[in-house]
Amino acid sequence: HAEAAFVPQEVTTVRVQDPRVQNEGSWNSYVDYKIFLHTNSKAFTAKTSCVRRRYREFVWLKRQLQKNAGLVPVPELPGKSTFFVGSTDEFIEKRRQGLQQFLEKVVQNVVLLSDSRLHLFLQSQLSVPEIEACVQGQGPQTVTEAILHYAMSNCGWAQEEESRP
Questions:
Q1: What's the predicted TM-score (pTM) here?
Q2: Is there a domain that residue 58 lies in?
Q3: Coil, strand or helix: which one is 83?
Q4: How big is the chain by its Cα radius of gyration, in Å?
Q5: Does an H or E element contain 22, and which?
Q6: Does residue 86 fall inside a structural domain?
Q7: 6 located within any domain
Q8: Number of domains comprising the chain
Q9: pLDDT tens digits for 121-149?
């Protein structure tokens, strides 16, 4: 079967980039990260997407994935270390790398990929309660609609465009 060699391989690239401090200087400041996804996999609704998520949302995602994955181990997140020696920038960079490794492993896992929470986390800007509602069929849109709506709205691309000279 020589022709089988030409089947394009499914590739999913996921990057965690551009950490940004929100509400800087206030007691509820936090860092969020841009998650850029580019894929040719049929598992994903949108072939490219770009959303911002914070660490707390990653923690929620991991918990939900573990709940649904049963015995399939979910990759580890970078630690929550409150006691950190070194600069904040260094800490944020370490965390960014850890979050990226977490997502890279998650998107390689067929069981985890079947969880629609993961798709809404990566490809829509719905909040955690909105993702829950959507997955349970209580949201205004289906999972696919929510992702397509976000993809069409172009907010996923606005940041990409701005950063070009």
A1: 0.85
A2: yes
A3: coil
A4: 17
A5: strand 12-22
A6: yes
A7: no
A8: 1
A9: 999 999 999 999 999 999 899 999 999 99
